[in-house]
Design goal:
Elements (H helix, E strand, L loop, with lengths): L2 H6 L10 H8 L3 H7 L11 H10 L6 H5 L8
Helix pairs in contact: 2-3
C-alpha cells in the first residue's frame, strides 16, 4: 500500500490520520511526508531508518517495497 493511500484511510474509529502527527512519530517533517507520498521518480528514497519507522507505525501496511514499486509475489 502506498503511504498516501494509508494516510487517507480513516482510523478504525473513523477519525482522520494527521500527517503532522505521523511525521512526528517517525521523526521527519510534515514536508517530508508530502514528498514520500509522491509517485516515483518524484518520491525521494526515505532511507532504512525512516522506512523501518513507517513500517512500524503502519503496522506493516507500508513497506520498502511500496516505495520501490515492487509488486507482492513477483520475482526479478
Amino acid at each position: 500500500m502506498k503511504l498516501a493511500e494509508w494516510l487517507d484511510t480513516p482510523n478504525p474509529d473513523g477519525s482522520r490520520k494527521v500527517r503532522g502527527d505521523f511525521a512526528a512519530r517517525i521523526g521527519v517533517t510534515p514536508q517530508m511526508i508530502s514528498a514520500y507520498c509522491k509517485e516515483p521518480p518524484d518520491c525521494p528514497w526515505p532511507g532504512r531508518a525512516v522506512i523501518e519507522a513507517i513500517a512500524r507505525e503502519t503496522h506493516g501496511a507500508v513497506t520498502a517495497n511500496d516505495f520501490a514499486n515492487i509488486e507482492q509475489g513477483t520475482a526479478a
